[in-house]
Amino acid sequence: MRIAYLDCVCGISGDMTLAALIDAGADLETIVRGIDSLGLPDVKLHVETVVKGGFRALQIEVEHPEQHAHRHLADITKLIEGAEELTKSQKRLALKIFQHIAEAEARVHGTTLDKIHFHEVGAIDSIVDIVGAAIGFDLLGVDEVISSPVPTGRGRIEIAHGICPVPAPGTAELLKGIPLVDLPIEAELTTPTGAAILKALVTRYSALPPMTVEAIGYGAGGRDFPDRANLLRLFVGESTTLPESDEVIQLETNLDDVSPEVIGYTKQKLFEAGAAEVFTTPIQMKKNRPGVLLSVLCRPSDIDQMEEIIFTETATFGIRRSLMQRSKRARQSCVIETPIGQLHGKLGWRHGERPLFTPEFESCAKIASERRIPIREVYRTAEQAFAEHLETVFEQHDHDHDCSRDHDHDHDDSHDHDCGHDHDHGVGHSQDHSHDHDGGHQHDHDHSHDHDAGHDHDHSHDHDHDQGKKKKKKKH
Hey, which of 143, 160, 380, 447 has its CA 20 to 30 A from 105? Predict the structure, then answer.
């Protein structure tokens, strides 16, 4: 599973998040095209390399004309929905972030969502930061976002409603349920935009999780602190934990007035939205009407999105939901070499067992078509190649282990010996796997790819500008 870890050592803001995403590999040109499609006049995004506390990082600045208007949630929704360069998932994530902000502001000011208007967060630079962050996370293709506990800072700041303590009321509302830490700095370290990004994306808060790091992005804040670098670190890579159980939501609805074509289309949309599984079961309903039970398995965070699709496409009157505990094998995509070519597949394993291999249908079908052989033969070849390779690995381990034990008796105890056995499986994986085997020996299988985690950018996206624009520089 691909994860992103936000290391909020000096808090988090929208511009720091966007800068860290770009530094970690999110394509700048794609982000700029998405921002341009919002139709905001005379907006220019500057990305430059800076040094904070002795460390290189990227810093974001948004240049735009002077503005005085305050936007409502409906205005921002219309802006995002009309952006042709944004994908559905990017729009959905950006709107989710703004929705959290609107709900927090409405609660703080004692009003409703339709009446709330954004001040600082409705400014052009904040819109750019939020939409850019939504694009960036989508481009990196992460399945889960994890964060460290979050420092808020100390002191007082001036906002549109006057002087208030840190964190500001709207920020504090957004931070409910998020573990906070104290950092003795007289400044606002976590902004409303940063808090909303955490609220919308982060599933859990912890120290750096077990992972194979592929890229690290550094996003710089605008302020300089004497004893520490004002940076947000973003780690991106593959999880190396063995998740043998988790929780899933099962959604169910009975349908007796929907055509098979509509059900098929609905299943397709549910899968595209991230459903883990969608299936149908024939049922007999009231008055002996034949019907279909539509069942969906999804993550708890995806309930609203899945239910919206079902309600919209089927016109059902109700959806049942239940939380289910699921035992499972950990899984990982891989590539295996065979006599007939490279084949893609999935590895599945539980703690203490040898991994299982399942070839991917599309990969097998391609080889079968190219070589004009039965697809069953391709499947057999792939499974046999993996089995032979696995046996070779374990035979090599047993040999090395015996030699290591004999070798240890011939040396003085003052020497250190490495009891780990490293095996190159020759199977392309996107993460490192550690398997525990009988005898108490740890075997590290290196399945990692090399990635260039350093991205030095000094870009600007130029437009023709009218007179009267100003460069807004954020201080965080």
Answer: 143
Per-residue model confidence (pLDDT) at position 280 = 96
Cis peptide, bond prior to residue 374, ω within 30 of zero: no
Mean pLDDT, residues 65-90 taken together? 86
Residue of 444 and 272 predicted with greater confidence: 272
CA distance 173 to 108: 7
Domain boundary assignment for the chain: 2-240+455-466, 245-327, 330-408+418-430
Amino acid in position 441: H
pLDDT of residue 314: 95
364 vs 382: CA distance, rounded Å: 9
The fraction of the chain above a pLDDT of 90, given in percent, is 53
- How close are the terminal C-alpha atoms of the chain, in Å? 32
What ranges make up the beta strands (E) of 31-110?
A: 44-52, 55-65, 71-72
The reply to whether 245-327 and 330-408+418-430 are identical in fold is no
3-state secondary structure of 114: coil
Assigned fold of 330-408+418-430: Ubiquitin-like (UB roll) (3.10.20)
Q: What is the mean pLDDT of the chain?
A: 81
C-alpha 288/C-alpha 293 separation (Å) is 14
Long-range contacts of residues 462-467, Cβ cutoff 8 Å, at least 24 apart: 462/44, 463/36, 463/42, 463/43, 463/44, 465/42, 465/44, 466/41, 466/42, 466/65
Within 8 A by CB and 6+ apart from 151, the residues are 8, 9, 10, 11, 180, 181, 182, 183, 185, 189, 190
DSSP letter at 287 equals: G
Q: Are 220 and 55 in contact (CB under 8 A)?
A: no
Residue 32 one-letter amino acid? V
Identify the CA nearest to 270 among candidates 239, 291, 249, 290: 249
Q: Residue by residue, what is the 3-state secondary structure of 146-180? A: EECCEECECCEEEECCEEEECCCHHHHHHCCCCCE
pLDDT of residue 254: 96
CATH number of the domain at 245-327, out of 3.40.50.1110, 3.40.50.11540, 3.40.50.2000, 3.30.70.1380?
3.30.70.1380
User: 218 exposed, middle or buried (CB, 10 Å; 0-12, 13-18, 19+)?
Assistant: buried
